[in-house]
Amino acid sequence: MTRCTVFGASGFIGQALTQALVDAGHEVLAPGREERLDPAMNLGHVFYCIGVTADFRSRPFDTVRAHVSLLSDLLERHRFESFLYLSSTRVYAGAGHAHEDARLTVNPNDSSDLYNLSKLAGEAICLHSGKPHSRVVRLSNVVGFDPHTHNFYAQLIHEALAGRIVLQSAPSSEKDYILLADAVALVMRIGLHGNASVYNVASGVNTSHEQWCVSLARVTGCQIEHVPKAQEYKFPPIDIDRVRREWGFRPLSVLETVPDLVEKFRKFLEQ
Q: What per-residue confidence (pLDDT) applies to 88?
């Protein structure tokens, strides 16, 4: 039995990952953020899933604490067999190419880049800590049923179930999405057996805001409205050649899960 430790096990990704590790027969520790651990204890294979997402602009100190400070303390003080840090493909914003070895650009004067800067600082301390088998996963936008999320696709589903989507961004806006099951399966494999230092975990295909809206309208019959001259947001397609070669990864279609997602959100709202 392999020992694994999941930090951030109460979150969306952390919960699913913890369950997948248990189902695979591993011994799983899921310490709370304030829980004190014995530095002499070997934590086994560590998965660091702590993070701040949609509200990072209003929580700058929490963001840096989650992405850098807590991480640094764990790396410095504890023993483990391997350490996997969950970063984000958001760090490729403004990049010409989204390969793991691409040169990245950030601007500290841009409030939106606080997230990217903190994630990249976390990546750097993880990769250069001198600790064994430290790896980074740059995780794309994960799609799955989470009734408490404020992510883009969940907001669209709520609006669709109310009968009308008012799209605040240009319909041509697009980014990469990956299904929760696909993401968890890859994260688990990489954390336990990964050969490289950095991995993109994504579908490798961008989905536009218009595609989301059309799929939701087909399922719910909702109306779609567009804000005139709305801003366009586009991310470069994420390169997933590394996980394709190493794991034979073939992502499932995100849009094909729309009917199931809508039904789950509908049932939750009717409770």
A: 96
